[in-house]
Amino acid sequence: MAKGTIGEYAIQLCRRAIGNFLENSTALSLAENEVPLKALKEKKGCFVTLHKGGELRGCIGNIGANAALYESIARNAALAAFNDPRFAPLSAKEFPAIDIEVSVLSKPVALRYKSPQELLKKLNRKKGVIICKGGRSATFLPQVWTHVKGKEQFLSELCMKAGLGSDGWKGKGLCVQTYTVKAYKEKRVDKQAMAIPGF
After folding, report:
1. Distances (CA, A) of 11 to 6, 87, 105, 165, 199
2. CB pairs under 8 A, 24+ apart, for 54-58?
3. In angstroms, what CA-CA distances link 140 with 2, 39, 42, 93, 134?
4. Residue 87 burial (CB < 10 Å; 0-12/13-18/19+)?
5. pLDDT of 76-88, one tens digit each?
6. Is the dihedral of CA 123, 176, 69, 72 positive or negative?
7. What value does the mean pLDDT of the chain take?
8. Which residue ranges form the domains of the chain, and what is each CATH number?
9. Model pTM?
């Protein structure tokens, strides 16, 4: 990844947000004029995923485009590190071993279907999926496709995540949306790099 790209800034921002919380126990606050890239000022949904030794260590995000991207990235990085209920808060000792991935979401689009079979046929393995029914909802990023055996398992696990039961996708009234992501993965050299000017 070329120096100065959106991806590099996004990763550096995550590290700064997590590091700031470790040092000061406060959320990172940036003024818009401190953000050097226009694309980071656009309102988009995003997820921040943390891995340690190849294993998930935290993942938090927002689907709705309700804040500037740089604000969402910083907030979600801290939440993934310290507020994912599946994991203990990240320690300062663990921090250097964490690998970071930022996923920037496109606007979700409704996927219309008339039967479970048609739903399976229309699912695209390159897209993330959102489901909702009766006030319950859940999403899987496109990256999840690499960890399941097929579309049925993908939907079953997504429905279980939403609290709808593994066969929830076979019933009526399930709303489905899909989206694409632009994923930015941290390179090992990024961890040794100096902070980007302006950050």
Report:
1. 9, 21, 16, 36, 12
2. 57/87, 57/90, 57/94, 57/98, 58/84, 58/86, 58/87, 58/90
3. 29, 24, 23, 29, 18
4. middle
5. 999 999 999 999 9
6. negative
7. 91
8. 6-106+181-192 (3.30.700.20), 109-179 (3.30.1490.150)
9. 0.85
